[in-house]
Amino acid sequence: MHRLIKEKLPRHLAIIMDGNGRWAERRSLDRIAGHQQGAESVRDIVRASRRIGIPYLTLFAFSSENWNRPPGEVEALMLLLKNYLSSELPEMLDNGIRLLAIGDLNRLPKDVLSTLNETIKQTSQATAMTLSLALSYGGRDDILQAIRRIMINCREGTLAPEEVDEKLFSKYLWTASLPDPDLLIRTSGEMRISNFFLWQLAYTEIYVTPTLWPDFNREELIQALLSYQERERRFGLTSEQIKTGDR
Ligand code: FPP
Hints:
Blueprint: E1 12-16, H1 20-26, H2 31-52, E2 56-63, H3 71-94, E3 97-102, H4 110-122, E4 129-137, H5 139-156, H6 166-172, E5 183-186, E6 205-208, H7 218-229, H8 239-244
Helix pairs in contact: 1-2, 2-3, 3-4
Bound molecules: farnesyl diphosphate (FPP).
Farnesyl diphosphate (FPP) binds at residues 17-22, 35, 38-39, 42, 59, 61-62, 66, 77, 80-81, 84, 133, 213.
């Protein structure tokens, strides 16, 4: 049994799933085999997060830059995503998992988008965990689409520039319905954000593991959560202020 403290779990866990290609290369396999194994890790980690009791889980499944990969790889990723959605729907429904998607979704192939929308619709009443898939997502794209919509509203006269503060801006991001992430996990050892959540990660704790995504499992997830629970989150305050509650 793990030693996690229920009250100190992250409310929102975000994961950059990296290393599928390297996992395959090390085994002299096709990169697509790495993504297939990566999809198995997605299944395990969603299941484990739900059991542990994490309310919001977001997975960076496809970035806006990933469209530039070889067409065969993009196609394989889209097919994996579609198959994942169809095969996991019963489990999502059984376990109270609500699916959301964030990103420039109109770029997705029509059949994938319709499966996605159907899954979102069917799981919309679930309340135990919100699983968000970041698809065709870029942090800069997200900020730009928010700015565009804010400017349109200002031009139309439904919003005044003085009203634009952090809270309002957050409501224009694709992540409007999600709290900011408390913990970001990145697999495969890379120490970068790779145009994932830029605005949303302002105070997020970051955990990087050398483990490649297809090898990432429940035990590794628990390690990351234990590490998170040992940290002191100060949000710009002093350690003393946090301890005494004097602010
Ligand atoms: C990074 O590995 C991973 C991706 C670009 C895609 C993530 C997709 C999955 C985990 C599988 C499908 C998703 C779902 C939701 C079923 P990489 O190819 O960049 O690895 P590398 O850096 O070692 O080349």
